[in-house]
Amino acid sequence: MRYQISGKQIDIGEALTTHVKSEIGELVEKYAQRPTEVSVVFSRVAHEFVCEAVIHLSTGLTAQAKGHASEIYPAFESCREKMDKQMRRYKRRLRNHRLDRPEPVEFGEGSSYILAPSEEVEDAEATSLQPIVIAEMETKIPSITVGEAVMQLELAGHKLLVFRNEGHGGVNVVYRREDGNIGWIDPRNSK
To answer: Where in this chain does the record put each Sigma 54 modulation/S30EA ribosomal protein C-terminal domain (predicted)?
Structure first.
């Protein structure tokens, strides 16, 4: 398992690094039982310490959590508890998907753009139709089932997930609706 433990403008001591490795190692061994990659970042916001952890499972799923506290160890414990709760909730599914998928999830490449907000100009209507691209970057699109996509959405805490549906190879979207339910967009079924 590969660990990346770092701090944003704060020093991370050897004792904290060892503690994080042992706690996260137990968590991953308990639920995932496969080699993974773990990234833990500590930072400070005003008087609070913030711990953000991301666990990349070999099945392609990603779990992430964030914890806050006035001390650095309790911030990590808060983050670890949230991660434990997420992975406990999906333990059965994590193990079932692991058995069904002997190979890791394939990722396709896609472009991701950040567009500048449009300013309201009454006379220059034609120029306002063309947004300004601030940033262009590559992103990865997983090739997974709808069930795995919903689980990934829940584990990562995202509002939206774009994925390639393994059932038919088309691009699909799952998203969290305002009422708390999950929506699924499958353009192939729009006929």
So the answer is: 130-183
